[in-house]
């Protein structure tokens, strides 16, 4: 279980607090106005930013002092989720082992996961030779291969068209959440949240509110969410 | 933009002129046309006055350090600005033709000496002096050694550099190759025979001299690689050698090739340290050329110059081209 224990993030004038837990297997959309700190919250959970107070706790273990790669977390950023100078296979291999070694067993595992995301036969390509949607699939494949319990999605599909984005979200839910992983994803689009989220965290006015069940919240939004959604 | 760049460019050019030992030596600067650097050379090679050479070297260093400080204050020119790679449209009546004229004149100024080398050198190729190929081999070996060392040092400075590294990158600008050679000569003379270590010292000094340029070429690319892909690398646990191998080196391939080419070409043509240290048996191509000139064997000297030119260009091209392969990434 992910628990944010009295978490305070300060960067100059900006500050954000969060004090809540998220149940295992939840697919939680992080919503709120631009500049509110959604990405900052994810970066702190991932370990790229140190909180000024409080802890990030996973299954009772304090993650705060642990480097990003040591946390049970994989993260997809808005862009640059693949090294452009490496083949898809090598990009995925780095998810298994930072030294990037490839042996028969690893090649096999990579082949299998590429098949799952619909990229059969694309292992030898470089990212530039893939479409935007295929690049997203390859990045998702690496997340799958890394097999971490908590997956953070910082709008990795934002640059895709609406149809492709919905497709990728479905795939993400199917392959990630289907296996009991907890997913935390930044989203600007309420339809994305409706589509795959079980919970919603509203980030606004310096506070990340505790997760609430997505259905009831979207059906009867509180004033802050109502204002954000423009209803 | 010009106001920001011009003072720095002026200072760098001033520095280069201040240390233009090779030209003065080649053209046979005598007592009436001497420079501080030439005077250092003469007190070492002919008068063998180590103390005087050291004092002169300090004078030269002081001059250059002052100029380097000016560069610093003027804000060193950042030759590697960013942009969107778009062609900038210009609307200036007559601008193009004036530009073309200026560029043509500058090209003429640069190309004329090179053209003369080719014209005069081709006949010289039929009558190359003894030992030219040994000298060529020495030059290429020194250049390759200096290149390897510079790349390693430049990478280390760029990736791990602090304030001290910044300073150490400026120092070779202030200390010319000849001044550094003088220092090393004074240090080494009591210990070993200078001619035994001539090539080694030349390579070391060449590497140090090229270091600021190499580091300057690499730094922006390294910063960009980290900015674009650093978080991904960190999230995958790429540290140390793995980060270097999978992120930094591939992203730096082009600037590495360019820096290697630059260093190799600079080192090939260097005529500073080697003039101090070399005995008869250790000449590199530039030294061989100067010796032939001072013996008034101009045709042979031109032939050597042509070989030197060709080898320098070839090395630069090979390295720079090597960095461009695989550009689809």
From TrEMBL, chain A:
Keyword set includes Nucleotide-binding: yes
InterPro entries listed in its UniProt record: AAA+_ATPase (IPR003593), ABC_SmlMolc_Importer (IPR050093), ABC_transporter-like_ATP-bd (IPR003439), ABC_transporter-like_CS (IPR017871), P-loop_NTPase (IPR027417)
Domain of life: Bacteria
Alphabetical UniProt keywords: ATP-binding, Cell inner membrane, Cell membrane, Membrane, Nucleotide-binding, Translocase, Transport
Name of this protein: Thiamin ABC transporter, ATPase component / thiamine transport ATP-binding protein thiQ
Molecular function GO terms recorded: ATP binding; ATP hydrolysis activity
Keyword Thylakoid: no
Residues covered by the ABC transporter domain: 2-230
Species for this entry: Limimaricola cinnabarinus LL-001
């Amino acid at each position: 279980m992910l628990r944010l224990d009295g978490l305070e993030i300060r960067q100059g004038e900006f500050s954000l607090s969060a004090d809540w837990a998220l149940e295992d297997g939840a697919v939680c959309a992080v919503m709120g106005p631009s500049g509110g700190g959604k990405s900052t919250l994810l970066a702190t959970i991932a370990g790229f930013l140190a909180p000024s107070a409080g802890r990030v706790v996973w299954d009772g273990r304090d993650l705060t002092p642990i480097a990003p790669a040591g946390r049970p977390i994989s993260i997809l950023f808005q862009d640059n989720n693949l090294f452009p100078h490496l083949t898809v296979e090598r990009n995925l291999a780095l998810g298994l082992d930072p030294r990037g070694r490839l042996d028969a067993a690893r090649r096999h595992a990579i082949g299998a996961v590429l098949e799952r995301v619909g990229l059969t036969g694309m292992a030898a390509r470089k990212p530039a030779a893939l479409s935007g949607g295929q690049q997203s699939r390859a990045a998702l494949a690496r997340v799958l291969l890394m097999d971490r319990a908590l997956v953070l999605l910082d709008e990795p599909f934002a640059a895709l068209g609406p149809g492709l984005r919905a497709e990728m979200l479905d795939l993400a839910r199917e392959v990630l959440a289907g296996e009991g992983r907890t997913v935390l994803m930044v989203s600007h689009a309420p339809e994305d949240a409706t589509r795959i989220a079980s919970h919603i965290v509203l980030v606004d006015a310096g506070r990340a509110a505790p997760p609430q069940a997505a259905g009831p919240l979207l059906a009867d939004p509180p004033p802050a969410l109502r204002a954000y959604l423009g209803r | 933009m010009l106001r920001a760049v011009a003072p720095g460019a002026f200072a760098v050019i001033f520095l280069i002129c201040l240390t233009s030992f090779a030209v003065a030596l080649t053209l046979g600067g005598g007592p009436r046309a001497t420079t501080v650097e030439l005077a250092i050379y003469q007190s070492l090679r002919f008068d063998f006055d180590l103390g005087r050479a050291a004092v002169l070297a300090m004078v030269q260093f002081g001059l250059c350090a002052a100029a380097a400080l000016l560069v610093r204050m003027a804000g060193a020119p950042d030759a590697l600005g960013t942009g969107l790679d778009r062609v900038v449209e210009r609307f200036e009546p007559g601008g193009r033709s004036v530009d073309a004229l200026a560029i043509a004149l500058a090209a003429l100024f640069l190309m004329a000496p090179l053209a003369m080398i080719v014209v005069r050198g081709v006949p010289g190729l039929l009558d190359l002096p003894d030992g030219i190929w040994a000298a060529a081999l020495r030059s290429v070996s020194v250049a390759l050694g200096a290149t390897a060392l510079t790349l390693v040092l430049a990478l280390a400075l760029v990736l791990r550099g602090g304030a001290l590294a910044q300073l150490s990158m400026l120092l070779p600008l202030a200390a010319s190759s000849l001044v550094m050679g003088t220092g090393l000569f004074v240090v080494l003379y009591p210990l070993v025979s200078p001619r035994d270590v001539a090539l080694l010292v030349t390579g070391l000094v060449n590497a140090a001299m090229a270091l600021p340029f190499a580091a300057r070429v690499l730094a922006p690319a390294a910063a960009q690689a980290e900015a674009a892909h650093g978080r991904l690398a960190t999230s995958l646990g790429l540290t140390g050698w793995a980060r270097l191998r999978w992120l930094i080196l591939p992203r730096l391939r082009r600037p590495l090739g360019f820096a290697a080419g630059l260093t190799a070409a600079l080192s090939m043509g260097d005529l500073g340290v080697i003039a101090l240290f070399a005995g008869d048996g250790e000449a590199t191509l530039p030294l061989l050329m100067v010796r032939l000139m001072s013996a008034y064997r101009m045709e042979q000297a031109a032939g050597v110059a042509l070989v030197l030119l060709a080898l320098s260009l070839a090395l630069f091209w090979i390295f720079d081209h090597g960095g461009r392969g695989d550009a689809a990434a």
